[in-house]
Predict the 3D structure of the following.
Amino acid sequence: MDDDKRFYERPVFWPRLIGAIFLLIFGIAFHFEIFILLHLFLAIIQLLLFKPVLTLPPETPQALLVLLANLIFFLVCYLIILKWVSLFVLPSEDPIESKKVYGRLVDYVVGLHGPAVFVKNGELISRKDEQLETEGGVRARFASLAFVDLASAVVLESRSLPPIIGLLKKPAQANEHPSPIRALGPGIGFLRSGERIRGSVDLRKQFRMIKGVRGFTSDGIELETNVNVIFTLGQPPEVMTVFDTKGNGLRVMSINRDTREISISNMLHELDAVEINTNIKSQKPTRTVGMAFEDSFNNRPPFTFDENHIISAVISQPRNTRDGKLEKWTDLPAQVAVSLLLDELSHISYDELYSLDSPEPDCYLYDTFKPEFKRKVKALGVLSYQFIQRKDGRTPQDGDIFKPDEYVFWDAMELHNPKPIRNRGIKVIEVDFSDFKPTDASIPEQRFDTWRSRWQRKTAFTNADFDLEIMRNLNHARAQAQREVIYNLSKVFKHPGFTQDAMAIRIFQALESAAANPATNRLLPSDTVDMLKSFENILFPQDRSGQSSGRFPAPNDDLPPEGSR
């Protein structure tokens, strides 16, 4: 980052210039002693080459002593000044850190310092002349320095160094063998001899999206969607409140922060439930007063620094089989979410996701499929739990009001059951996917035609059943009308003393009475009504006005005849 600056703007210019000025002043002040020292070196060289040795001046011993004393005094004063300057170069909180800063400054002066790097938002920044060590490099043997901002962390890894001759063999102490892998959080960190930066992470919320994810439903329809995940390494695990139902296993209790109303759900993974049951047997309730779920997570720096989670995220980076390169830890949550989504999608049909027979509020995709998918993905990340139990032994129910003084609390503990994202120390905050779109544009139209044909078939069957019922009722009504006509005619035939003309008139009157009934009139065919009208014209000729008596209504007329007999 200093490559584009002028030579006098670079940080090494002024220290070198000041050093050159001091050397010039020292040479001018002690030029006589330096001249004698050069004569001494020349005499030694002549002696080694078996040549005549120059005669040294008598002031040589005194000059050497003066020069040596001034050099020692200069070095002591210089080191004291460096110690004083180190107090202002880098901030330190204790004598151990002050000692590290002073050692780093001395290494920098003599040119034995390692690479000094800056970590900003999870990205390493270094100068070209202080690049990280290469394979077989020497810089890794000396201490280095890392400036880490409030939203970042780095993982350091110790490398094996060649043996050094002359080391005294003594019993190893516990502090002499530090962990080969460690993490540095926000601030200034010193790298030990042989350490290198394995990787850096961003502690802020991370967002990743995979577009164009394609999968098949159980009925073979290919769908496309976009999957997005929000995750982080800079927040503590989300704490689930767990209780025992005493017979139905463990359940998760959700408490509304405003109303304190309780809602119960069964969202525990089977292996997580086994781990919780095992831990509960070895735990005892504590005096914890506050609920762990009420702890708020900080979305601004400084973020939570969990060394184990950060090391797991960097060390467990998978290697791409195509090019052999390590993939970033930020790519894993989205990839796992896509894999789980495709697996869940393959067990359900397209008609179940988007049912045309159900109203919008009862859509299976939004009410069941998507919430269940979100729960499963979050369960793959880091999670914690806090076990609670009512003091009176009663099981909490939906809708109860949560009162802390009625419960016994256990310590909040993190789940360690192996999961793909949990093993990397990543917390999944939110996961979602867009609406599914069929890759074939004709699928919605075909699906609508299939749905319409199914309902048309059901409609045809329903209409056929109603038509059959109508025909049955019509035949039953006709039979009833026939029985009534037969009953009326039988009374006419059974009555004695009528002539044939009178008998014909009485029979016609019986038929006319049956035809005038609105319920019977609807059941008479039109030719029967026409035949009755013909009989009327024969038996009752038209009156003087030329109008018929009009005794018989139309077959479909519900009104009774207007003329009276």
